[in-house]
Amino acid sequence: MKVDVFTLEFITPCFAAGAEQAKAELRASEVRGQLRWWFRALGGSRDREAAVFGTVAGESAGASAVQIRTLVVQGGPPWPPPNVSPMSDNAYIWYFASVSGKKSGQRGAGPRWTAQGNMPPGTKFEIQLRHLRDLPKDSGQLFQEALDTFLLLGGLGLRVTRGLGAFVCLERPATDAALGACRQLLLDRGFRWVLPHPNLGNNWQAAIDAAGNLLRHRLRPRFPAGKNGDQMSPLGSSKPRQTSAVYLRPVRRPNGTFALLVFEAPAQRVLGRPSRGGAPASGILAQ
Predict the structure, then answer these.
(1) Residue 140 sits in which domain range?
(2) pTM of this structure
(3) How many beta carbons lie within 10 A of that of residue 100, not counting itself?
């Protein structure tokens, strides 16, 4: 049985929880969900996805070929979430995390918006993957590509498309060569990619601020007042509920400096409903 173990470190706060919303918890099911997303986004069909991750539906029902386990090995310095000003650029990143789990009529922030509700930057954790059986060559190759891309550009928890829950893999650092090879793979599979902020110093919060500014002023579609969340677009919508095909991803290079990149997955592979055609801001996500 082949076993792969990777050590990852969060570089932005991760808001992930189990049954207890007020306590941060890292779950294997979240890692599995992200790997499935990448597998699908890179071109995997439903049948190939079922062969790798298992399914309970139809004639192809079967167990997963990969078993995933997670373990937090070192906590980072506690990070108390800030007050969120609705007029600030970074409110576009923080707001929905700050009110997650909030009950109707409840004042103030939600239960996750505490030092105990997030895994702060510097938290290190392990992902263990046990390969329970051999996969067909094409599915095995696609799974490896999904894993490699997840380790370089993935994230976990709330607002993962907006830069939260970003991590670096200590065995697979984000070198220029690694990012260049990943960029080419994504472009070949129909993604869009841009590096709007290549150097943000050694402060992760600068990357979050840059993401908020980019989202507010350059990426967000210009919808009529009061209707922003109710219009389908590549950036997602609330009514109907649709996730974003656009990711704003902070990256920490081996020398400790941060960059911000933006990529857009092919909407037909990752969105359950049709989105507004085209990129959210012409020219920003140009190849």
Answers:
(1) 2-270
(2) 0.91
(3) 19
